[in-house]
C-alpha cells in the first residue's frame, strides 16, 4: 500500500508553487514529495479525478490506463516555509478533490459542496467534524469559520423547504446566514487509499491489506462500435454524424488498413449516444452490414474501495486486538461478540473492517474478527455463528479519529494563514453509562 509520490497534477503543483515563498532557494516539483509521514503509515494513492479508461469485454487483451497520481501523507514542505494570503473556496475544493476524489464516493451518497455562501469570501479557517450538530455549528460561528468539512453529509435526502423545525435544515440556514460553506466527503474518504478504512485497520498493526469492495474508475464512453466503410469519404460522412450525437465531441477512433472488404473502423460512444449512433450507422449500407457493439467495463482502481481485509504480519489474541483498538480509537469501552468456539485468547490473524455501519460490506467475508461501528442484532448473530468475533465501537467512533490524520494532510497543502482545526464539540451521541 506504500507508494511514492509521482506525477503530481499541475493544478496542485501550480497552486502550491504560487503560494509558497522560499528562503533563498527554489522548490522543484520533486521536492513536493517527501518521505513517509509519521502521522499515518498508509499514504493515499489517488486516481486522476479527470481521466479514466475502460477495460474491454472483447478480444482485446490489454487497455492502457492513465497512471495513478500518488500523494504522500508526509509534509510537502517545511513548517518554516512562509506562505501568504488566504485561499478562495474553489481553491480549497481543488485540494480536497486531489486528496480524495468525489468520484470514489458511493452512487447513493450526497458528497461535495452542500452549502455555498452567496457572497464569496476568502477561506481563512476550516473546521473538521464527523457530524454537523448544533454544538458544532455554535463552535464554527464562535471561531468565525469559513468552511466546515463534515464527514457525514448534513443534507442527505432531497428537501422541499428550509424551515426551523427540522434540525438539519436549521443548521443549513445558519450556515447560509453566517456565510459558512459546508462540504462533505463521506464515502470518498472511506474508499480512497490511505483513507478512513486504511486508518481503521491500521489500529491492529501492519499486515497485507486488500479492499473488500473494489472501486471502479469512471468511464465517459461505455460502448465500442466496430464497422466497415467503403471509402475515406464515407468514413468522414459517418464520423460527422456520430460526432453530432455524442455532445459534439469527436469520438475516439481507430482505423485499420483497408482491405478488399473496406476500411475497418472502431469508435467509442457514451450510453446516451448509443441508440442514435446505431441508427445513424444503419442508414449506411456497408456499416449496417458489418456493425458490432461491444460493452466496455470500468477498470478497477487498485487500493480504492469500501472496507479492508488485513492478514496481520503478527497475529494477536482477541484480548490484545481489543486493547489495540481501544488505544487507536481513544475509547475506554468497546462491545465484543465472541465467535462460536472462540475465547479472549483465540488468535486473530485476519481482520475485516468497515467504518461506520459495515454489515453490508462485511457480510460473507471470511475473517477471524470484524471491526466496525455498528451492526444489527441479527447481523452480529450471523457472524458469531460462523466463528467470527465482532468488535463494535458505535458508528462515528470508528471514523472520528481519522479527522486528526486528515487535518495534517490538509494543513500542509494550504497557506500558513489558513487555520485547519478539528472540532472539540463533535462526539458520538451514544455514551456508556
Automatic annotation (TrEMBL):
It comes from the Eukaryota. The keyword Metal-binding applies. Homodimer. Interacts with COPS2. Interacts with THOC7. A divalent metal cation binds at residues 152, 190, 395, 399. Belongs to the GTP cyclohydrolase I type 2/NIF3 family. This is NIF3-like protein 1. InterPro entries: DUF34/NIF3, DUF34/NIF3_animal, DUF34/NIF3_sf. PANTHER family: NGG1 INTERACTING FACTOR 3, NIF3-LIKE PROTEIN 1. Pfam families: DUF34_NIF3 (PF01784). One of its GO terms (cellular component) is mitochondrion. Keywords: Acetylation, Cytoplasm, Metal-binding, Nucleus, Phosphoprotein. One of its GO terms (molecular function) is metal ion binding. It is found in: Cytoplasm; Nucleus. It comes from Seriola lalandi dorsalis. Its main location: cytoplasm. May function as a transcriptional corepressor through its interaction with COPS2, negatively regulating the expression of genes involved in neuronal differentiation. The keyword ATP-binding does not apply. One of its GO terms (biological process) is regulation of DNA-templated transcription.
Amino acid at each position: 500500500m506504500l507508494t511514492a509520490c509521482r506525477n503530481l497534477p499541475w493544478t496542485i503543483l501550480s497552486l502550491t508553487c504560487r503560494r509558497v515563498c522560499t528562503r533563498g532557494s527554489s522548490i522543484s516539483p520533486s521536492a513536493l514529495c517527501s518521505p513517509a509521514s509519521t502521522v499515518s503509515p498508509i499514504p493515499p494513492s489517488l486516481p486522476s479525478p479527470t481521466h479514466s479508461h475502460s477495460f474491454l469485454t472483447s478480444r482485446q487483451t490489454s487497455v492502457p490506463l492513465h497512471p495513478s497520481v500518488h500523494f504522500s501523507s508526509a509534509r510537502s514542505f517545511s513548517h518554516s516555509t512562509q506562505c501568504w494570503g488566504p485561499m478562495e473556496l474553489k481553491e480549497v475544493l481543488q485540494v480536497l478533490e486531489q486528496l480524495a476524489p468525489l468520484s470514489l464516493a458511493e452512487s447513493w451518497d450526497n458528497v461535495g459542496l452542500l452549502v455555498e455562501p452567496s457572497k464569496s469570501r476568502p477561506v481563512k479557517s476550516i473546521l473538521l467534524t464527523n457530524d454537523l450538530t448544533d454544538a458544532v455549528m455554535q463552535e464554527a460561528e464562535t471561531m468565525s469559520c469559513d468552511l466546515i468539512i463534515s464527514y457525514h453529509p448534513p443534507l442527505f435526502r432531497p428537501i422541499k423547504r428550509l424551515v426551523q423545525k427540522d434540525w438539519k435544515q436549521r443548521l443549513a440556514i445558519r450556515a447560509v446566514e453566517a456565510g459558512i460553506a459546508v462540504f462533505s466527503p463521506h464515502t470518498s474518504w472511506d474508499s480512497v487509499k490511505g483513507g478512513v478504512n486504511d486508518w481503521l485497520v491500521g489500529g491492529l498493526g501492519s499486515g497485507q491489506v486488500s479492499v473488500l469492495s473494489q472501486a471502479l474508475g469512471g468511464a465517459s464512453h461505455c460502448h465500442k462500435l466496430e464497422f466497415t466503410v467503403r471509402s475515406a469519404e464515407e468514413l468522414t460522412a459517418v464520423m460527422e454524424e456520430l460526432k453530432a450525437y455524442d455532445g459534439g465531441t469527436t469520438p475516439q477512433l481507430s482505423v485499420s488498413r483497408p482491405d478488399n472488404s473496406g476500411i475497418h473502423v472502431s469508435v467509442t460512444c457514451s450510453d446516451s449516444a448509443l441508440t442514435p449512433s446505431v441508427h445513424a450507422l444503419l442508414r449506411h449500407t456497408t456499416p449496417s452490414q458489418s456493425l458490432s457493439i461491444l460493452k466496455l467495463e470500468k477498470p478497477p482502481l487498485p487500493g480504492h474501495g469500501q472496507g479492508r481485509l488485513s492478514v496481520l504480519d503478527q497475529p494477536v489474541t482477541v484480548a490484545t486486538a481489543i486493547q489495540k483498538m481501544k488505544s487507536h480509537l481513544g475509547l475506554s469501552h468497546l462491545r465484543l461478540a465472541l465467535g462460536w468456539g472462540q475465547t479472549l485468547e483465540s488468535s486473530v490473524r485476519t481482520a475485516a473492517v468497515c467504518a461506520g455501519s459495515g454489515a453490508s460490506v462485511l457480510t460473507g467475508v471470511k475473517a477471524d474478527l470484524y471491526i466496525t461501528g455498528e451492526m444489527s442484532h441479527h447481523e452480529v448473530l450471523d457472524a458469531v455463528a460462523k466463528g467470527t468475533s465482532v468488535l463494535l465501537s458505535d458508528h462515528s467512533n470508528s471514523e472520528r479519529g481519522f479527522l486528526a490524520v486528515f487535518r495534517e494532510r490538509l494543513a500542509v497543502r494550504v497557506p500558513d494563514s489558513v487555520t485547519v482545526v478539528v472540532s472539540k464539540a463533535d462526539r458520538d451521541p451514544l455514551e456508556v453509562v
